[in-house]
Amino acid sequence: MPKKYEICLRLSAEEKERLERDARSCGLSKTAYLRRLILGREVKARPSQEIRALRTEIHHIGNNINQIARSVNAGIARAEDAKRGLYLLDQVYELMYEVAKK
Question: How confident is the model over 15-35, as pLDDT tens digits?
Fold first, then answer.
């Protein structure tokens, strides 16, 4: 079993706050966050609630578009279905534009 070492690290109040904030934004404990930094692993912030909601919305729109494409390929689609598909694609572009602005 490998030995475990404990390291005492002194930080200023500002450094401590930054460490806690950055670790929390990644969904990691301070220890796990520092360990990843030391090992040179990628450390990414978790997506915001807004981004997660946007992904869910785009996923639902994508499902609707797939259903429309299946009906077109099966030869049972109507003109309204095609219009609905174009409308949904437009919604996806609008949502992506909103995210890009931020």
Answer: 999 999 999 988 889 999 999
End-to-end CA distance of the chain: 48
1 band by pLDDT with thresholds 50, 70 and 90: low
CB 25 within 8 A of CB 45: yes
Token couple for 89: 């694609």
Contact between residue 68 and residue 52 where contact means Cβ atoms under 8 Å apart: no
Quote the CA–CA distance of 95 and 99 in Å, as a whole number: 6
Choose among 4, 12, 27, 82: nearest CA to 90.
82
| pLDDT per position as a tens digit, 38-54 | 999 988 877 777 777 88
CA dist list (Å): 39 to 22, 36, 42, 102:
17, 5, 9, 31
